[in-house]
Design brief:
The chain has nine helices and 15 strands. By secondary structure, it is an alpha+beta fold. The strands form three sheets. A six-stranded antiparallel sheet has the order 1-2-3-10-9-8. Strand 1 and strand 2 form a beta hairpin. The longest helix is centred in the C-terminal third of the chain and has 20 residues.
Length: 369
């Protein structure tokens, strides 16, 4: 499907109710993914706002790094990539008057923005009720650059629920970004529409954004998360406060393996904090639980699960994953919640398929420790 980006004027001359917009844009699919029908079916993660902010803080803690600037630049570059794909319409130099920008931002769970000051070389933009400070600062900066057709340096500050983004023209010449592809092979099966997400339950929040299941949601593209990973790898030196031996990534080495472990252990930790019950009586229950804990957020689904009744282990395929480390950490959390035991997850790629194995951490099955 072609990219529709912000060319939404005809579609939204009479603005639709939020839930109709969400149903039109975000497509829940049978492989447990959610795709963005306005941006070339890019895979997206429907993350809880507070969950995502805690996710960033926990990853920073495990890697002993400050990653806000990396996230901001990843968001800026990702936004520029998608805007540059919009060849159907000249959006113009006034960002506030872009056709469909309010609908686009609201459906993504972003805050409302207002340009409070601008000159030929500088500008100040505030975002009310922002979701993630670094991410929204990068998105605003990229949109401003796209409108003005000129590079800008940017910095941001947060005060309560208001984000201030200051921009200053920069004569640096930076080429347009290219598409960022997953660094794991993907065997993409035929997919059908699914009803893993009930958009009719979405509720617009008076203070900005929208919520589902009592939690404000934000839609994060996989392109953004992959760029965030690439920008962060160079600075990684070590990993702390993580169960590194309980995450085995076959074919993923060095700093990327540390990054994946930080993402996975953070995801496991945050899942365990939710206190969700996970009841497993037979292999099919793993599919049901993966729909509840993965597919409902666009993180994939477990397929062909097999249980090792003697050792309490799980073997399965993981399809439609947004990112193997995020999904893998939640799967390990589900296993530990269902068994009451500490586990270890092993992920490898065979014939283009992601295969997951979880076993008790005390087991000697995993010889790659």
């Amino acid at each position: 499907m072609g990219d529709d980006s912000l060319g939404l004027l005809d579609r939204f001359r009479k603005q639709k109710p939020l839930r109709d917009t969400l149903k039109e844009r975000w497509k829940s699919r049978s492989d447990g993914s959610i795709s963005d029908s306005w941006r070339a079916d890019q895979a997206v993660w429907m993350a809880g706002n507070s969950w995502f902010n805690s996710f960033l803080e926990n990853v920073e803690m495990r890697l002993s790094l400050s990653l806000g600037r990396k996230l901001a630049h990843a968001a800026s570059e990702s936004e520029e990539f998608f805007l540059s794909q919009n060849k159907r319409r000249n959006l113009g130099s006034n960002m506030e008057k872009w056709a469909g920008i309010e609908v686009d931002r609201n459906s993504r769970g972003l805050g409302d923005f207002e340009i409070i000051n601008q000159s030929s070389d500088t500008a100040s933009v505030i975002v009310n009720h922002f979701s993630s400070g670094p991410m929204e600062a990068g998105i605003v900066a990229s949109s401003w650059e796209f409108a003005k057709r000129r590079r800008h340096k940017f910095r941001w500050s947060e005060s309560g629920r208001v984000l201030l983004v200051n921009l200053e023209a920069d004569e640096i010449n930076v080429p347009l970004p290219s598409e960022c592809m997953p660094n794991w092979p993907e065997h993409i099966p035929a997919v059908d529409p699914a009803d893993y997400v009930n958009w009719n339950d979405a509720r617009e929040l008076e203070m900005g954004g929208w919520e589902l299941d009592g939690e404000r949601k934000i839609m994060i593209s996989r392109d953004l998360i992959l760029r965030f990973e690439e920008f962060s790898l160079h600075n990684i030196q070590s990993l702390k406060d993580s169960r590194a031996k309980d995450y085995v990534w076959e074919g993923v080495n060095g700093k990327r393996a540390l990054w994946w472990t930080a993402l996975a252990d953070t995801s496991r930790h945050l899942f365990m904090e939710t206190k969700r019950h996970v009841m497993i009586s037979d292999a099919r229950d793993w599919i049901t639980n993966s729909i509840r804990n993965l597919s409902s957020s666009g993180l994939g689904i477990i397929s062909e699960p097999k249980l090792d009744l003697d050792k309490g282990g799980l073997e399965a395929k993981l399809i439609g994953t947004f990112h193997p480390a995020i999904s893998g950490g939640i799967i390990l959390g589900c296993w530990e919640r269902s068994t009451g035991s500490k586990g270890r997850i092993y992920l490898n790629i065979l014939d283009g398929e992601l295969r997951v194995k979880v076993s008790p951490a005390r087991s000697s099955v995993l010889t790659t420790e």
